[in-house]
C-alpha cells in the first residue's frame, strides 16, 4: 500500500500531522507493507528566494491578524506540537519560500533519504534558532546530515531547473486530487485525509484502505511469455 | 492511471509485447493520463557478466531443443516481431546477463529517459549485429544516445551496488504479484496481463482498469490545515 503525503516545510500543521500519521502507522499491523512518499506543496509559491520575513509579521500583514491573534495562533500550534513531543519555537521564526527545499527533497527521494531530510528541515524550521530561509549553506548542512552527498546537493541548489518539474507536477496532482491545503494524505489514490487529524483518523483510513486494497486479477493468455524455462513458442 | 511493465532486455516476447501494448495505448482515449513505468525482471539472474553464449546454442544446451527446434522458435519470433514492424535478427544473436542493463534503466528512470534507453537496448539486442553483452562501451553509447550523461552512466556501471537494490526490489514485487514470466503488465495494481498478448487484450485491460480506477474519498477534518489563506487555528 502506498501513502502519499503532500506538505510544505513552512506548514506547522504538516509538521504536527506527520507525527500523528506516523503514530498511527507505527501501530498499524501491516506497517511494513506501507510505502510512504512525501510530495511537494508550496504554501507560498511565487515567493522570491530573498523575501524572508518573521512569521508573526507575515501573519499580521498578510492575513490581517492582530499581534495578539498571531501570537495566540503560534502558542496554540506550539501546544499541539508539544502534545506530539515535537519542539516548536512560538516566537522568532521566519517565513519564506520553500521551492529549493522541495527540489532538494526530490533529489533526496532518489537517493532514498527523503524522510531523513524532511525531518531535519522541519526540526530546523520549527525548533532551531538559525533560519532555514535564504541560507544555502544551512540547507547543505542539513542535506549532509541526512546522508546526502553535499557536492551533489550543492549542484541541485545551484541549478534552478533541477527537480523543479517534479515539484510542479506534485502540485498539479495535489490540485487534481482536490487538496486545497496541507497536510494532505492519500492512501492508494483511493482514500484522502485532509489536515493534521488525530492519529485515530489515520488508523481508520489505513485500515479501510488496507481492506479495500486492489487484488490483482491477471489475464493469462497463450504462451507468449519468457520465463526461467525459456521462451514458449505458440503453435502456429 | 499507472501501468507497470516487468520485462527483460533478453526477452523476445517483451520486445514484441511492448509494441503491442503501445499500439493499444496509442489508441486509448485517456492515454495522456496513463503513466508507464518499466520494471526489472532478469530471466537469467545469477548469470555471470562474462558468461555470453549464442542464443541458438543456449536454447539447445539449456533447454534441450534440437537445432531445428531452436531455429524454428527464432523464426517464429522473427515473424511475430516483423508483424509489429520490429526488426529481429533470427540468427547470430548472443545471450547473456542483463543486470547491468537493468541498473542503467533504473538510473535512466530517475533522469526521465527510461523508455528511450529501453527502446535502444531492445533494438541493439534484437536487431543489431554488435552484441550488447559484456561490452560496457556499447552500453555507454546507448546511454548517451538515450540522452543520459555518459560519465554518470559509467559511474553506475562501475559500481555494482548502484541501483542493484532497485532491481532486486522489482523482482521481489513481480514474484509477489504472481508473475512467473515476462512481459508482465500491471494496471493500477489491480489488473494484470501476462505475456505478449494481442493489442485488443491490452485495450480491454486499459478500458476496464480506467473505468474501475479509484476515485478519491477524502476525510475532511476540523481546521488543522494550512492553505493559501494561512494556517487555520482550531477553537480550543
Automatic annotation (TrEMBL), chains A, B:
Which CDD domains did the record assign? DsbA_FrnE (cd03024)
Organism from which the protein derives = Streptomyces prasinus
Q: Where is the DSBA-like thioredoxin domain?
A: 3-206
Q: Which InterPro entries match?
A: DSBA-like_thioredoxin_dom, Thioredoxin-like_sf
- Which Pfam family, any one of them, does this sequence belong to? DSBA
Instruction: Tell me what this protein is called.
Output: DsbA family oxidoreductase
> Which residues are in coiled coils?
none
Q: What PANTHER family does UniProt report for this protein, alphabetically?
A: GLUTATHIONE S-TRANSFERASE KAPPA, THIOREDOXIN SUPERFAMILY PROTEIN
Annotated signal sequence range: none
Amino acid at each position: 500500500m502506498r501513502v502519499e503525503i503532500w506538505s510544505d516545510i513552512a506548514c506547522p500543521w504538516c509538521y504536527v500531522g506527520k507525527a500523528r500519521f506516523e503514530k498511527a502507522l507505527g501501530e498499524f499491523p501491516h506497517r511494513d507493507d506501507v510505502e510512504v512518499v512525501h510530495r511537494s506543496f508550496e504554501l507560498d509559491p511565487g515567493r522570491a528566494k530573498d523575501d524572508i520575513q518573521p512569521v508573526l509579521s507575515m501573519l499580521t500583514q498578510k492575513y490581517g491578524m492582530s499581534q495578539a491573534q498571531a501570537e495566540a495562533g503560534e502558542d496554540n500550534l506550539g501546544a499541539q506540537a508539544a502534545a506530539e513531543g515535537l519542539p516548536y519555537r512560538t516566537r522568532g521564526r521566519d517565513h519564506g519560500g520553500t521551492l529549493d527545499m522541495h527540489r532538494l527533497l526530490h533529489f533526496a527521494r532518489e537517493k532514498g533519504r527523503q524522510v531523513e531530510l524532511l525531518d531535519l528541515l522541519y526540526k530546523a524550521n520549527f525548533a532551531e534558532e538559525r533560519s532555514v530561509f535564504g541560507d544555502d549553506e544551512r540547507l547543505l548542512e542539513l542535506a549532509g546530515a541526512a546522508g546526502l552527498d553535499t557536492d551533489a546537493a550543492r549542484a541541485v541548489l545551484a541549478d534552478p531547473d533541477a527537480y523543479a518539474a517534479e515539484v510542479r507536477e506534485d502540485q498539479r496532482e495535489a490540485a487534481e486530487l482536490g487538496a486545497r491545503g496541507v497536510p494532505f494524505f492519500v492512501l492508494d489514490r483511493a482514500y484522502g485525509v485532509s489536515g493534521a487529524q488525530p492519529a485515530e483518523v489515520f488508523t481508520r483510513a489505513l485500515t479501510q484502505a488496507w481492506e479495500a486494497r486492489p487484488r490483482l486479477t491477471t489475464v493469462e493468455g497463450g504462451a507468449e511469455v519468457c520465463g526461467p524455462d525459456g521462451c514458449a513458442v505458440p503453435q502456429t
